[in-house]
Amino acid sequence: MDSVKRQEHSMTIPDSKRQRTLSTASDEEMTTPVSQTDRSDVDMTELEQEDVEKGIIGSLNSPKILEALEKCKILVIGAGGLGCEILKNLALTGFKHLHVIDMDTIDLSNLNRQFLFRKKDIGQSKAIVAAKFVMSRVPGVEVVPYFGKIQDKDEDYYRQFQIVICGLDSVEARRWINAKLVDMVDEDDMESWKPLIDGGTEGFKGQARVILPTMSSCYECSLDMFNKPTTFPICTIANTPRLPEHCIEWASVLEWPRVWGDKKYDTDNPEHINWLYQQAEARAQKFNITGVTYSLTQGVVKNIIPAIASTNAVIAASCCNEAFKLATGCAPHLNNYMMYTGDAGIYTYTFEHQKKPECPVCGSETSIAELKPTMTVEELIEWLGEKPDAQLKKPSLRTATASLYMQAPKALEQATRPNLTKSVSELVQEGEYITVTDASLPVSLQLRVKWIK
C-alpha cells in the first residue's frame, strides 16, 4: 500500500497550479476534466497545460487514459458477491468492454449482498442478469455474459482480453484459470501475456493480488496460505473412515451416485442434505465414529464460506484499482499481494509473494518427496491429501512404467486397489518419478522419490 501512496503524492498538482485551479473553477467546472477546463478558461502554454495534466484529476481524465479504458477488454470470472462489485466498479470507472462468466443461478440467499439481482431474478443466470443490469445503468458500456464453466472456453477466447479478474469462491476454478494463463504465454508474443487479478473474501478477511504469468508468483505458488480443504482421499473414506467428515464424504461421493446414478444432489435441498446425513450417520455407527450432525453435513457438502458485503466492496475496489493501473500505466501495480482484515478495524498488509521454483505450474524444478521406505501407497495418498501446498482431493499415482493407484475408471481402480497396502519401496525405486493427477490439479504433479530413515 506504501507504493500506492507514494505514487499518488508524485501525481499531485503542483501548489501554484492547484491554488489557481481551485480558486477559479466553479462547482460545475470541477466536474469537468482539468484538461478541458484549462483549455477554455485559462490562457496556458503547452508546457503549463502538460504540468497540470500530470496531476491526479488531469491524468485520470486525459485523452490517453480515457482511450486506454475504452480499448481495454476485461474478463470478469464470477458474478457473485465479489463479481457484482467488480462489474459495477469497472463500468463506472470507464471501461467499456467487459465479459463475465458464471455457472451459477440466482438464489434467494444471494439478494442481501449481490445487489445487481432482484427477487424476480431468482433462478436465472447470474452472468446474464448482471450484464443486463450494468448495461441498463451505465450507458455506453458493453457487458457480454456467458452462463457456463470457464473450462468450456478455449485458448482463443481468453486471448481476446487484456486483463482477467477473478471474483471466485472456488479454489479449483482459480487454479484452472491461473494454469491456463501461464500455459498461454509465448515469449515471442507479448499479446499472449494476460495479467490475472485475483480477489477473495472470507468473512471479515480478504485478499487481492496481481499475478503476472511466468513473471511473478502464480496462484499455485501460494496454495499453502489457504485453509486445508475438508475433502479426503477416496481410499480412506471407502475403506477406513476415522472421522465424521469421512462418513459424510462417503455418503456424498460414493453412496449417492451408487443409489441415484447420474442425478446430482442439490446442496440447497433439505431433503437431499437429510438423506446424506442419514447415510453418513449409519456409516459412522458401523465404524464407531461419533460427531455426525445435520449441520456438519451441510458444512462439509456445501463447503460453506461466510460472505460479508463490506469485505466484498473493499476487495473489489482494490482489484479494480489494480486493473486501472495495469490498463493505463498511470501508477505502479501492486507487487504483488495485499491482505485485508476488517473484524477489529481496518488493517491491510502488502508483501511480495515469491515464486516457488518447484511450482508445478510456473516453476522449473521438480518437487522432491522425502518418504520412508515403509510408507504404504495408501499412506502416501493420505500424505498428499494433507499437504497444504498441494490441496489434492482424489489423487491418482503412476510411474513411467506402472500405475500405483488410479481413482478412475472403476475397473482400473479395482485393479490397482491391492497396491494400497504395499509399501512404496516395493513399487518405486529411489530417484524415480511419481506422476500425480487429481481433479483439482490443473496440471500433473511430478515427484522425485527420496528415501529417508
From TrEMBL:
Active site: 235 (glycyl thioester intermediate)
Pfam families the record matches: E2_bind, ThiF
Entry keyword annotation includes Nucleotide-binding: yes
SMART domains: E2_bind
Gene Ontology BP terms: protein neddylation
Key words, A-Z: ATP-binding, Ligase, Nucleotide-binding, Ubl conjugation pathway
Pathways per UniProt: Protein modification; protein neddylation
Region (Disordered): 1-41
Cellular component terms (Gene Ontology): cytoplasm; nucleus
TM spans (from-to): none
Principal EC category: ligase
Family matches, as Gene3D superfamilies: NAD(P)-binding Rossmann-like Domain, Ubiquitin activating enzymes (Uba3). Chain: B, domain 2, Ubiquitin-like 2 activating enzyme e1b. Chain: B, domain 3
Gene Ontology molecular function, alphabetical: ATP binding; NEDD8 activating enzyme activity
Annotated ranges, domain E2 binding: 369-452
Reaction it catalyzes: ATP + [NEDD8 protein] + [E1 NEDD8-activating enzyme]-L-cysteine = AMP + diphosphate + [E1 NEDD8-activating enzyme]-S-[NEDD8 protein]-yl-L-cysteine
EC code: 6.2.1.64
Function, as annotated: Catalytic subunit of the dimeric E1 enzyme, which activates NEDD8.
PANTHER family, alphabetized: NEDD8-ACTIVATING ENZYME E1 CATALYTIC SUBUNIT, UBIQUITIN-ACTIVATING ENZYME E1
Protein family per UniProt: Belongs to the ubiquitin-activating E1 family. UBA3 subfamily.
Protein name as it appears in the record: NEDD8-activating enzyme E1 catalytic subunit
UniProt source species: Choanephora cucurbitarum
Gene behind the chain: uba3
